[in-house]
Amino acid sequence: MNALARVPLIAACTALAVLPCAPLHAAAAGTGAASRTPFQVRCEDSIAKTVSVLSSRSNGYTINNQLPFNQLTARSGSAANGMATLGLTVTNGQYGAKLGGTILQDPASGYECIAPRVDLTLNYSPVLIYVSNEFAPGSCGYQVILEHEQRHLQAYMENLARVEKVVRDALNKRFDAKPLYAPSGTAMSALEHEINTVWFPFIRDEFDKGRDKQAQIDTAEEYARMGKVCNGEIAATILKRLHKQ
Question: Where is the signal peptide (predicted)?
Answer without folding.
Answer: 1-26
